[in-house]
């Protein structure tokens, strides 16, 4: 499968995985408590952090934000319908700043590091019946599937445009959903063939 980890090496690649994930958790909580100029500053800070990785890294980072646009449209339309279009700005700013930093973390952290860290953190939960390896593998599969689904989405859009002059829009929703289910089924078969997750 494809990976979210950027091949462009930056200073953030040298930071330990637990430091980046802990920072991301604190950052997300802090975003819920700030507003106004502080929220705008948070957005600018994320942009500066992403840009510090260089032009190629920044372009990749921006591309990773592309799946947010449908949510942004829904949020704006909903706030317009409620008669408070300006209320969409704080929501979009928090969403962009949180997802933006999360993307930067996944782009600069090896998947093996994330799995090892999550397995270590959830080890005490084994007493409650949770298998730490299964939890770590589940998170890894979600992270791995994001670029795969983005690539599959692009392929379906191109196939639709080759057959119709109309915009894809909602018409490709079902093919994308079926493709996701098909990929999930193939991964499940591969895991079963290798003895499962643990």
Query: Oligomer, anyone?
Result: single chain
- The stretches of 5 or more residues where confidence is low (pLDDT under 50) are none
Number of domains: 2
Q: Report the structural category.
A: mainly alpha
Summarize model confidence as the mean pLDDT: 82
Report the principal-axis shape.
Answer: globular
How far is the N terminus from the C terminus?
20 Å
What is the element string, with H for helices and E for strands?
Answer: HHHHHHHH
Helical segment tally?
8
Q: Count the strands?
A: 0
Question: What does the radius of gyration come to?
Answer: 19 Å
Give a short account of the largest sheet. none
- Helix content estimate: 55-70%
- β content, as a range? under 5%
Descriptive report:
It is a single chain. The chain is built from 8 helices and no strands. With 198 residues, it is mostly helical. It has 2 domains: 1-109, no CATH class; 124-198, no CATH class. Helix 1 packs antiparallel against helix 5 (88-107) and helix 2 (36-51) runs parallel beside helix 5 (88-107).
Task: Write the SSE topology.
Layout: H1 17-31, H2 36-51, H3 55-64, H4 69-81, H5 88-107, H6 111-121, H7 132-163, H8 173-193
Helix pairs in contact: 1-5, 2-5, 4-5, 6-7, 7-8
